[in-house]
Amino acid sequence: LSFDDGPDLFRTPGVLKALGAECTRATFFLLGREAEARPGLAKDILAAGHSVGSHSMDHANLAELSVEDALTNAAAGRAAVEAAIGQATPLRYPFVATTPELSAAMTDAGLIDVTVTADGADWTRNAPEDSVAMILAKLEQTDRRGIILLHDPFAKSAARTRLLLQSLKDEGYQIVALEQPAD
Which of these, 52, 123, 140, 173, is most buried using a 10 Å CB contact count? Predict the structure, then answer.
């Protein structure tokens, strides 16, 4: 279970509360600019037992940049998140968009790319119920395994998280967070 685009001062705490109520751990891919602005909240995510990754500096579509500019943006985002939480982080591409050349360059630069299996399209105006149904359908197509993508800085993020956790529990899924890379 993963969340992108935070941390958001007002909405991320609701997602953390929903996860905590179910004793569930997730991975949060933070934007560098947001981690810089709210390092205390970034540390709170980690202190609550969740894994943390980086999601670029500013959510630019790295696949549309030159490889050099994409590497610079990703490295700046990673550095900002790592400065906020005090440890190394994996990377998720904004828009989950990459190219073979960019992926190779990121690997050469030591950045670990984390993909997505089931996107709930919560960045659209989908109702939480529709997002959860999409996620469950996608997981069924992948042998009931995969990485779920949600976003924490939206108005319905906490409600969607609660509904997803209950639905996954009802369907017998086990939720795990990604492991933090060793320093």
Answer: 52
Over the Cα atoms of the chain, what is R_g? 16
Which secondary-structure segment (H or E) carries 151?
strand 148-151
pLDDT, tens digit (0-9, with 9 covering 90-100), for 52-89:
999 999 999 999 999 999 999 999 999 999 999 999 99
Residue owning tokens 């202190």: 47
- Report phi then psi at 57, rounded to 5: -80, -40
H helical segments located in the chain: 12-21, 32-37, 39-47, 67-85, 100-108, 128-141, 157-170
144 secondary structure, DSSP code: T
Distance of alpha carbon 17 from alpha carbon 69, whole angstroms: 37
The four Cα atoms 124, 117, 151, 75 give a dihedral, to 10 degrees, of -120
pLDDT tens per residue, range 140-169: 999 999 999 999 999 999 999 999 999 999
